[in-house]
Design brief:
alpha+beta, five-stranded antiparallel beta sheet, 2 helices, 34% strand, disordered C terminus
């Protein structure tokens, strides 16, 4: 084999190595990119971050709401638990303080409007700590991190639930056994008819109290 051929082969090997390295770096970057707070598939006005703090406990909660059919459902980078039929509400918790996070909750303006509470291990920021619980309760969607607790620099997996209700805002909280902070997070709101019914019931109760 001539020197020219050897040189060409060496250059080709170097190019293949560089291309492979760039591909790996791009894959790692893609895995770590696309936080919920800036997810381009999220609804305008309902993607962002909220900071929670109390004493030496603090955390950032990234959130995004996806219109029906807009959350990834390719079984690789994410899965829509409603199969594209409902709004998807997604949250991810990043501890920033000295103390761990053990409790996360998202309030709901109306009962019985949330479904399919589940955890997505792959979409957005890959990996993360699996919550001990993440369930739809009577007045909130509630999660705990007990085994293990959620401590910096770790972060939670993406916490999901779905709803037929379009997004509004309601109190959410982050805390542990002795410290807690409450801010507003996106959450489903009742349909106009349901909302009018709630207002009518409230007005009726108010009249009864006055009488």
């Amino acid at each position: 084999m001539g020197e020219l051929e050897k040189g060409s082969e060496a250059q080709m090997s170097k190019k293949c190595f560089v291309v492979g390295l760039l591909f790996c770096l791009a894959a790692v970057s893609a895995a770590q990119a696309g936080l919920l707070a800036s997810d381009p598939n999220g609804m305008v006005g309902f993607t962002g971050s909220m900071n929670f703090a109390s004493g030496s406990m603090s955390a950032t909660v990234d959130y995004a709401v996806f219109s029906p059919g807009m959350y990834p459902n390719d079984f690789l980078t994410g899965k829509d638990p409603s199969n594209g039929t409902e709004y998807v509400y997604a949250y991810q918790v990043f501890p920033t303080g000295q103390d761990p996070i053990t409790v996360v909750s998202v309030g709901r303006i109306a009962p019985n409007v949330a479904h399919n509470a589940m955890v997505d291990a792959l979409h957005v920021t890959v990996g993360g700590v699996q919550p001990s619980t993440w369930n739809v309760l009577s007045s909130s969607v509630f999660g705990t991190f007990m085994t293990p607790e959620l401590e910096s620099p770790a972060y939670s997996r993406v916490l999901l639930f779905t709803s037929l209700g379009a997004p509004g805002w309601a109190p959410g909280s982050v805390g542990n056994g002795g410290q807690s902070d409450q801010k507003t997070l996106p959450t489903p709101i009742p349909e106009p008819a349901g909302l009018l019914g709630m207002l009518a019931v409230g007005y009726g109760l108010l009249r009864r109290v006055r009488l």
